[in-house]
Known about the structure:
This protein is mostly helical. Helices cover 54% and strands 8% of the residues. It has a three-stranded antiparallel β-sheet. Helix 1 (3-9) packs across helix 5 (90-112). It starts with a helix and ends in a 6-residue tail after the last helix.
Amino acid sequence: xxxxxxxxxxxxxxxxxxxxxxxxxxxxxxxxxxxxxxxxxxxxxxxxxxxxxxxxxxxxxxxxxxxxxxxxxxxxxxxxxxxxxxxxxxxxxxxxxxxxxxxxxxxxxxxxxxxxxx
Length: 118
């Protein structure tokens, strides 16, 4: 296991909020509200973040090196200068990959035990 895998592996399991935010950023940079909207859309509104959860989790993700604030911005006519945009770091991407693998292994067990049918 490489150094990145070691660092990412120590962060598992990820909380649902952290995992959803990392997944929302997997497609590219987003601002806070854009992250919340992506999570809501991707989960058919089963997951919704209040501002405290969203921005508190974003702060912890930045502090832990899973995401960074980026200077990448959309064209000026689509942008609001007050927005902060975030993107995944290599550590954040690896943590999301490892969490996805962890959850897939759990789902495989559930399928074998006929607890999940899909």
